[in-house]
């Protein structure tokens, strides 16, 4: 039930109109505050976006292309082939040196075996002669 004043307008309607006006002003202030906040946030977002774009530009500048990879691959193949041939030559030289050393060691060992055999044979003959001589003197 609305109250009626002498002018015939409703008191409640008049207070609602004032409230609506107050609410509109308050809403405008609230909207303006939100717009200011959004503008501030938008500036920060734009700054961050610019930083990301710079980072992406740096990353793109450092991309490796297929041609770069092919060049590195061919360079590595050449380097590996050079190292491989150098290793083969070195291994062949070491193998040859080892064969010569082993052959010399075999010859030295064979000489020692023969000389030791001759020495042992001579020693056993001498000991046999000594044993026979001792047996003669004892009997």
From TrEMBL:
It comes from the Bacteria. The chain crosses the membrane at residues 118-138. Keywords: Membrane, Transmembrane, Transmembrane helix. This is DUF1640 domain-containing protein. It comes from Massilia violaceinigra.
């Amino acid at each position: 039930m609305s109250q009626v004043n002498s002018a015939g307008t409703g008191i409640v309607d008049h207070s609602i109109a004032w409230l609506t006006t107050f609410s509109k002003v308050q809403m405008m202030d609230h909207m303006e505050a939100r717009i200011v906040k959004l503008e501030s946030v938008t500036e920060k977002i734009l700054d961050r976006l610019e930083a990301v774009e710079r980072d992406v530009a740096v990353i793109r500048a450092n991309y490796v292309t297929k041609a770069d990879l092919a060049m590195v691959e061919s360079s590595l193949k050449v380097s590996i082939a050079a190292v491989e041939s150098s290793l083969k030559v070195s291994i062949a030289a070491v193998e040859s040196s080892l064969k010569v050393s082993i052959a010399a060691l075999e010859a030295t060992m064979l000489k020692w075996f023969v000389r030791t055999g001759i020495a042992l044979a001579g020693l056993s003959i001498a000991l046999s002669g000594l044993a026979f001589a001792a047996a003669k003197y004892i009997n």
